[in-house]
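S1.2 Input.
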Amino acid sequence: MSARVLSFLIAVAVIVLALSQSLVIVKETERAIKLKFGQIVDADMSPGLDWKVPFMETVKRFDARVLTLDTNPQRFLTSGKKYVIVDSYAKWRIKDVRAYYQASSGDRRRAEALLENLVNKGLRDEIAARSMYEVVSGERDQLMTKLTAQLNTETQFELGIEVLDVRVKAIDLPDELSNNVYDRMSAERGRESREIRSQGKELAEGIEADADRQKTVIEAEAYRDAERIRGEGDAEAAGIYASAFNKNPEFYSFTRSLKAYTETFNSGDMLLLEPDSDFFRYLKDAKGK
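S1.3 Output.
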């Protein structure tokens, strides 16, 4: 290989290296900043193809998408001097690349640590001004909206970060307070259950007493109606018998004697009667004479 060809290849390699070091591609999902000897010369490079001076200028890229900060659960004090443990998260993105780089040197973990401190400070101030009920349910949405607006103003100025939303994942009570609340709730539920059982027992006794009274009344009325009907039936039967037997008294006397014989002689008992007794008159004579 001749010296001229070698020199040409070296020149091409140098040009390719210089071009690779000079060419910069910024993606749509990125924010980039150009530095010259550590000083900012372009605070917000546009997405696409750009140039830089090799070995003199450097480009740092950052994620421009919406990011999530998942904070560690923190203990806060309410206006009623009750502790709550709040687990929250925040949605954020880079708004001002220059301020973001100056505050965090482009380190996302450092930026999130600074943002977490501001979120916790804002939560502490807002929760301290509210009761436990307002924190847990009453004004949670208003609290988050107000906190997001306050944080957004502060973080854009200090960190170059836009806070899009702050939300609470969970609000818990400390273990010792949870045990006290549980014991108090258990005692309250026990008192309510005893009161409900007492009311139910009283109501049941009233129902049973009313049922017994109705039963007595119904049985008495039924017995009265049965006796009345039975009396009416007996009276009607006696009338029929009297009407029938009045037509032939002798036949009535005869049938009565036959019935008496049947009941007496089938009983198996021993009777001592005189043969001339009037009881046997139909045995001696069919006409009873």
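S1.4 Remarks. The mean pLDDT is 79.
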